[in-house]
From TrEMBL:
Matches recorded under InterPro entries: Aminotrans_IV, Aminotrans_IV_CS, Aminotransferase-like, BCAT-like_C, BCAT-like_N, Class-IV_PLP-Dep_Aminotrnsfr, D_amino_transT
Keyword Acetylation on entry: no
Subunit structure: Homodimer.
Name of the protein: D-alanine aminotransferase
């Protein structure tokens, strides 16, 4: 496998991380995961713009322009013959003697991108998944796709240890998002999801789902969902680049839409798939 390390495509075995890379020592960096469907890079512009925004919010300058980056990512997909998979990419503040203070502006950011396996979880998309809730203990800039994922990692593990798929975060009584997903609840045919502010990552899949809902004539409302009122909703689902639209059938043991994916969720799943590169449409 070839990986992109700054400006060069090199063999995976040749890639080394310096012990003083700030990503390694401080989690001082940002990342993206992009989906490739049948060789086509899905929503690359949106992901790269979000990468640039995340980096900018923590005062990292990307080492290339987005146009150059796009060309390099296309090259990466092509040399590795990625057909149905993903691309992981991250940018750190660079390599410098350990010190909390930013290094000088002469220290370049370090970029790495490489293919990762990613297959649509088709079975789970049909059956739906169970989730649990937990307190959202993350910092208050969840809109930045930061490498600091400690609470997300803890929460995902807690779900797995309980035999569940995902943990949904609750901050001050409000449902925010999942440990690696956005969250939606459905009532009377309307889809509700948290507004895109500092408390959630504005998922690229979320944006596409809102578009898919418009296409399918499904009403959407971006507004806070009270955790205490969750049981008043009929359906729920989560989304991300890798899982797309994933129905939730139980939250903390309580069933939604009789323990099966709900009809509105299934119609959104379909409308989302209709936005994917041609050959993936059902
Ligand atoms: N929220 C969080 C916390 C995430 O980690 C992710 C996945 N990166 C998402 C939402 C979904 O984002 P996207 O649809 O861009 O994959």
């Amino acid at each position: 496998m070839k990986i992109l390390m700054n400006t060069k495509l090199i063999d995976r075995g040749q890639a080394k991380v310096d012990i003083e890379d700030r990503g390694y020592q401080f989690g001082d960096g940002v990342y993206e995961v992009i989906r490739v469907y049948e060789g086509e890079i899905f929503t690359m512009d949106e992901h790269l713009q979000r990468l640039e925004r995340s980096a900018g919010e923590i005062k990292i300058s990307l080492p290339y322009s987005l146009t150059e980056l796009k060309d390099r990512i296309r090259e990466l997909v092509s040399v590795n013959q990625v057909w149905d998979g993903g691309i992981y990419m991250q940018v750190t503040r660079g390599v410098s003697p350990r010190n909390h203070l930013f290094p000088g502006s002469d220290i370049p950011a370090q970029l790495v991108a490489y293919p990762i396996p990613s297959k649509r979880p088709e079975e789970l998309q049909k059956t739906g998944v169970e989730v649990i809730t937990a307190e959202d203990m993350r910092w208050k800039r969840c809109d930045i796709k930061s490498l600091n994922l400690l609470w997300n990692v803890m929460a995902k593990q807690e779900a797995a240890d309980a035999g569940k798929f995902e943990t949904i975060f609750v901050r001050d009584g409000i449902v925010t998002e999942g440990s690696s997903t956005n969250f939606y609840a459905v009532k009377d045919g309307t889809v509700y999801t948290h507004p895109s502010n500092h408390f959630i990552l504005n998922g690229i899949t979320r944006l596409k789902i809102l578009e898919a809902c418009r296409n399918a004539g499904v009403n959407t409302v971006e507004r806070e969902i009270q955790a205490s009122e969750l049981d008043q909703y009929e359906e729920a689902f989560i989304s991300s680049t890798t899982i797309e639209v994933m129905p939730i059938v139980k939250i903390d043991g309580k069933s939604y839409s009789k323990g099966k994916p709900g009809p509105v969720t299934l119609s959104i799943q379909k409308a989302f798939r209709d936005l994917l590169p041609d050959r993936k449409k059902d």
